[in-house]
Amino acid sequence: MTSSPTASSITETKTSATVQRQARGEERRVAILRATWQVVLADGVRGVKHRAVAKAAGVPLASTTYYFKDIQALLVESFQLFAHESLAQFTQPFWQRAEIELAALPPDANREELETILVELTTEFIELRLHDHREHLVMEYAFWYAALHDAELKAAVRDMALAWIRLLLPCLARFQLTNDEQAARTLLGAVRRVEYEGLIHGTATHRPGWVREAMAYQMRGLW
């Protein structure tokens, strides 16, 4: 004679099934967000439509409208995930390493020595993004420019920029500048200008060392 399942075992089974269902739902939601990146890379932000994203994600069309109320919500959440992973996987580790390198300089390092290492660090950062992370960079700029016409996306882009500035501030503290925050904003602007030039013109129109030359010129405005 088999015993009947207890109330607690039934509850546990239902809870387990609910957890698994929620996990599958979250996996599908994230897959849709990542598929949005593919569409942005291929066709720009204007190409992000429910049908295009569903096809890229390999999910039914109804899934995109189930998880996201409209295209704007999909774009904003997609960029937020993109920004989080970009910062965590590349930008944050890079500038944390840079902070360690700058801290290791002799206490009596002069302005020229400090400026030289900052130029080298920013040059390395830009060249890595232009060459090893180019597709990622293209998507980032597509989102940033789309934010000009989207208030919610603009707020998400501002959050990413502020996160960058917070990473740069500890590096610049070593330089004894008059205004570290303004210097961080200036440095971020310089990096983005050179990156954009590299994306638009490519390496074919630039001689070797052009990134370093451009950043060396930009650094003069920090002091």
From TrEMBL:
Residues 1-21 have a biased composition (Polar residues). Transmembrane segments: none annotated. Residues 1-22 are annotated as: Disordered. Keywords: DNA-binding. Residues 26-86 form the HTH tetR-type domain. Residues 49-68 bind DNA. One of its GO terms (molecular function) is transcription cis-regulatory region binding. InterPro entries: Homeodomain-like_sf, HTH-type_TetR-like_transc_reg, HTH_TetR. This is TetR family transcriptional regulator.
